[in-house]
């Protein structure tokens, strides 16, 4: 059995963490031979609730759970961590403009970046889930200059999983038979779910999804908008935002980053090097593969005129969010 690694989860008293913590502590993320020591961060008023979560983790009697540290102090939470799930953020309150929300949350990620910079392992892998996830990841990285920029990522895996599930349903196949869908851009309603390079396994042979679906209009319209609006549809039905599926996506993202993707592509928000004509130095979701703990953007894909338009829209939004966030961080 390996020595335990320390793993931080922020927003640990919240609803995504409630599903995520079990997945991490049961071995679904770092593998069945990797014990974990959980560092759980939330704000001071939530310490009572967090204590209840700590009690439940103990009651799970999980063999891989080496210990739990609940805290309201980011420097305690991030001390020596090898992985950090940054889930905690301020929810949108009634009457709050998108800009106010960005402003409140960007400040949290500035402070957490500074704490990570001070006390985390320099090879820590960071996944930002809290919204606006892409821009929060960018700000967190900016304030943690001693940690490589490629170690900061944002979660678009939930959108990726949703897109894969929609295509599997459309084609009447199990979800495991569909691969290489792509989410481009921002984790927001401007994201571009793209099936043009996706493959479906039919009788052991990989067939392009566009040919199998044979309905270009569906792939450009209903498919795109269904994935873009899925979060709102879940809220309308459940009266609460996606949590089970968000936690599963966070697990998938971190597991693939640590353990590799094999021959599949996955979507990750990563720092843009300008690939595919996207704005540089924003956290943009690309198709990536992971080997030996390093992600790499899939190269050489053909971008249609339709895709170009969609990539430009979401890239523009990210550039604007970056500008607004940097403005907030000045004071
Ligand atoms: P929640 O409201 O149930 O939990 C959030 C937790 O974060 C609360 O316990 C709160 O006290 C805590 N928190 C607030 N400020 C904090 C700080 N400075 N440090 C540490 N903890 C802090 O929310 P839920 O449902 O767990 O969602 C969390 C975030 O994830 C939200 O921003 C949500 O929009 C986002 N999200 C992102 C998705 C993605 O695909 N990227 C999908 C679903 C949700």
TrEMBL record:
SUPFAM superfamilies: LDH C-terminal domain-like, NAD(P)-binding Rossmann-fold domains. It comes from Galleria mellonella (Greater wax moth). Keywords: NAD, Oxidoreductase, Tricarboxylic acid cycle. NAD(+) binds at residues 42, 105, 129-131. It is an enzyme of class 1 (oxidoreductase). Belongs to the LDH/MDH superfamily. MDH type 2 family. The gene is LOC113512300. One of its GO terms (molecular function) is L-malate dehydrogenase (NAD+) activity. Substrate binds at residues 92, 98, 131, 162. Pfam families: Ldh_1_C, Ldh_1_N. InterPro entries: L-lactate/malate_DH (IPR001557), Lactate/malate_DH_C (IPR022383), Lactate/malate_DH_N (IPR001236), Lactate_DH/Glyco_Ohase_4_C (IPR015955), Malate_DH_AS (IPR001252), Malate_DH_NAD-dep_euk (IPR011274), Malate_DH_type2 (IPR010945), NAD(P)-bd_dom_sf (IPR036291). It catalyses: (S)-malate + NAD(+) = oxaloacetate + NADH + H(+). Its EC number is 1.1.1.37. Residues 5-152 form the Lactate/malate dehydrogenase N-terminal domain. HAMAP family: Malate_dehydrog_2. GO terms for biological process: malate metabolic process; tricarboxylic acid cycle. The keyword Repressor does not apply. This is Malate dehydrogenase. Residues 156-327 form the Lactate/malate dehydrogenase C-terminal domain. The active site is at residue 187.
